[in-house]
Amino acid sequence: MRNLVLVAALIVGVGACETNLQTSSGADYLARYDASHEIANGVATDVDEDVRRIAAIEPTLAFPARIGLARIEHGGLTTLPEDEARIWQDVLEELGSDYGEFVPVSPLIASMVSDAPARRSNNTAAIIGHIRRGAARQHLDYVLTYEVGSSRDEKSNALALADLTVIGMFVLPSRTIEVEASASGLMLDVRTGYPYATLTTHAEKSGVSRVVSDGSTARTYADKAETRAVAKLAQEFGDSMAELQARSIELANAG
Q1: Spatial contact of 96 and 64, defined as CB atoms under 8 Å apart
Q2: Rounded to the nearest 5°, which phi and psi values hold at 124?
Q3: Is 4-24+62-254 CATH 3.40.50?
Q4: Whole-prediction pTM value?
Q5: Could you give the count of Cα atoms lying within 13 Å of 37 in the half-sphere of its Cβ?
Q6: Residue 113 and residue 220: Cα distance in Å, rounded?
Q7: Segment 37-95, tens digit of pLDDT
């Protein structure tokens, strides 16, 4: 990144990060499903109907876009810490204007249009719904909801990162990889709820990177494990944006 220099080893190896992108068509999926599935006794069950309803969703990727950043802490939407906001700004500057802008989802605005779930409730659907409502009021196209967890035991690893209660981790490092912090993100379409990306990154105890800004970002945040994990998440998300943009062009041409 232009403004974000990764000094020493910012390791992205097996178990260190995982990103999955999705742009598949619900109509195509259901066409294959209907052709191969025989309903028991000729009567659709509630599950059959739910599956069809849930799958009937299409990607609507288009750039430039207004992309929301929603940070979850203790099971609730919170404001972005200053150091993390600078990290995301660095990534956006590196991406350029073709991708649009990052806009923090405001807890205050969300509270104006939606009742916030109880803190530490772990009600994922309610929390994500609350974020989508707030993002809709801000006229955001997509929202990256992310959560950070840290290990407070020097001998523990990512398997003990119980702070990730809402987004959760999509991949865990092996028991031989000691981790100080992990960050997981989920990119959704605000209007439809379509999931475009899931990401998980880890700040490892061994070979830990130092994240240092060559601009205005203070060097002090280099020693914070959770911020290192977010820096890796932001970098991974930035790398994913190019692929998502390419897929958006394919979708537009196919439509």
Answers
A1: no
A2: -60, -45
A3: yes
A4: 0.78
A5: 15
A6: 37
A7: 666 556 667 888 898 999 999 999 999 999 999 999 888 999 999 999 999 999 999 99
Pairing of strands 142-150, 179-189: antiparallel
State yes or no: cis peptide before 64, omega within 30 of 0. yes
Q: What is the residue extent of each domain of the chain?
A: 4-24+62-254
Residues, the chain: 255
DSSP, residue by residue, 135-202:
HHHTT-SEEEEEEEEE--STT--GGG-TT--SS--SS---TTS-EEEEEEEEEEETTT--EEEEEEEE
Look up tokens 């911020």; give the residue: 227
Angle, alpha carbons 28-29-32 (nearest 5°): 90
CA dist 23 and 104 (Å) reads 24
Amino acid at 196: Y
Please give the residue that has the higher pLDDT: either 181 or 240.
Answer: 240
